[in-house]
Write a structure and sequence with these properties.
Length: 270
C-alpha cells in the first residue's frame, strides 16, 4: 500500500492540527498482507487494523473494520441525527461515543460475516485508532495493536495489549527472560470478530505541539523494541522517511509478520 500523507482539519481553532503518514509492508516471512490502515483526513481519524484468520480472511476482517469506521463517520458527519446501532453511553462525550460505536459496529459486521461464510470462519482483527477532537486526542483500541506517543523525544505506550502475555505480566511478575521466551506471545484475548459484542478501551490524551503519535501493528512493536522505535522516529524529522525507516527496522530484525505504522504529528494546538 502506498504512503498516504494528509493535513488534519484546521477549521476548529481549539483543535490540534495533525500531519499524518501511514505505510504497510508484507514483511519478510508472510505471503500476503493482512494489515490495513487509513488516514481519514476529513474526520481527523487515523486507524491501524491487524487482521487474523489465515488465507485471505484476515485481510477481509481488517479491511471491513477500516471501511466501517470510514462509513460510520461519513454517515454521522452528514447527518448528526442519524440513528446509531448502539445507545450512547451518557457518561462519555459525543465524539468518544461516536468512535466506540464505529468500532463496535465493525466488530458486529465482521462477526456476522464470519458466521455466514464458512470460508471466513474465525476471522478477526485488532484495531487501534486516534480521533482528534476539541478536547484533545481520543485513543481507542481492541487487541494488541498499539498507540504510542513521543513527547520531547521520549516514547510512551498509551494502550495496553489485550494479550495472554500481558495478562500473565499483570497477574504475576515475570522475568525479562520469561517474557522473552513466553510460548504464546501471539495469543490475543480480545479482538474484533471474536464475539457478537466487544469492549472498546478508550482514553483522552492532551496533546502538545511536536507530539508524535505512533500507531502500529505488532509486526512493528514485536520485532522492534520500544527503544528502537523511539530512536528511529527521533532520527528522521520527515514523517514519510521515519515511517519507512520503522518498516525497515522491523524487517531488518527478521520481519516475521506484516508491518504497519501510522505517524501523526501535532503541528499546532489551539
Amino acid at each position: 500500500m502506498e504512503l498516504l500523507l494528509s493535513q488534519g482539519d484546521n477549521q476548529m481553532a481549539s483543535r490540534a492540527r495533525v500531519l499524518a503518514v501511514g505505510h504497510t509492508d508484507v514483511g519478510m516471512k508472510r505471503a500476503h498482507n493482512e494489515d490495513n490502515f487509513d488516514v481519514i483526513d476529513e474526520y481527523n481519524l487515523y486507524v491501524v487494523a491487524d487482521g487474523m484468520g489465515g488465507h485471505a480472511s484476515g485481510e477481509v476482517a481488517s479491511q471491513m473494520a477500516i471501511d466501517t469506521l470510514r462509513e460510520f463517520f461519513r454517515a454521522t458527519h452528514a447527518d448528526p441525527e442519524a440513528t446509531w446501532p448502539y445507545k450512547m453511553d451518557k457518561s462519555r462525550g459525543y465524539e468518544e461515543n461516536r468512535l466506540m460505536t464505529s468500532i463496535k459496529l465493525a466488530n458486529l459486521r465482521i462477526y456476522e460475516a464470519a458466521q455466514r461464510d464458512p470460508k471466513l470462519r474465525g476471522m478477526g482483527t485488532t484495531i487501534c485508532g486516534i480521533l482528534v477532537v476539541d478536547e484533545g486526542v481520543l485513543i481507542a483500541h481492541v487487541g494488541d495493536s498499539r498507540v504510542y506517543r513521543i513527547r520531547e523525544g521520549k516514547l510512551e505506550q498509551l494502550t495496553e495489549d489485550h494479550s495472554l502475555l500481558n495478562d500473565y505480566i499483570k497477574m504475576k511478575r515475570l522475568t525479562e527472560e520469561e517474557i522473552a521466551n513466553f510460548p504464546h506471545k501471539n495469543v490475543i484475548v480480545r479482538a474484533l470478530g471474536m464475539k457478537e459484542h466487544v469492549k472498546v478501551d478508550t482514553m483522552l490524551d492532551k496533546p502538545q505541539p511536536g507530539d508524535i503519535y505512533v500507531l502500529c501493528s505488532d509486526g512493528l512493536c514485536g520485532p522492534a523494541t520500544d527503544k528502537e522505535i523511539e530512536e528511529v522516529v527521533n532520527t528522521h524529522s520527515d514523517l514519510k522517511t521515519a515511517t519507512k525507516a520503522l518498516i525497515d527496522k522491523a524487517n531488518s530484525n527478521g520481519g516475521p509478520d506484516n508491518i504497519t505504522a501510522v505517524l501523526a504529528k501535532v503541528v499546532g494546538v489551539g
